[in-house]
Amino acid sequence: MKWILKFVFVFLISTNVWAVGEAGAVFLLIAPGAGPAATGEAQVAKVDDAYASYYNPAGLAFLPGRELALMHVNWLPNLASDLYYEFLAYRQEYPGLGVLGGYVVFLDLGDQTRTDEYGNYLGLFSSNMWALTTSFGTLLNEHSSIGISAKIFHQNLGPVAGSESGKGKSTDYAFDVGYLWKGNHLNFGASISNIGPKIAFIDNNQADPAPTNMRLGINYTLFANEFNRLNVLFDMNKLLVAKYPSMDWDGDGIIGGYDESGHLSPGKDFNRKGQQETSHKDNWITALVTSWLDDWYLGGDLDKGGRNTGQGADKVIGGYRWEDLDGDGDVYEYKYWAGDSQQYEYVNSPDCPECEVFVDENGKFNEYGTLEKGTGKDRNFVSEFKEMVYNFGLEYWYTDNFVLRTGYIYDYEGKIEVNAFGAGIHLGLYGFDFGYTYGPEGHPRANTMYFSLNLKL
Question: Parallel, antiparallel, or unpaired: how do β-strands 98-115 and 84-94 relate?
Answer without folding.
Answer: antiparallel
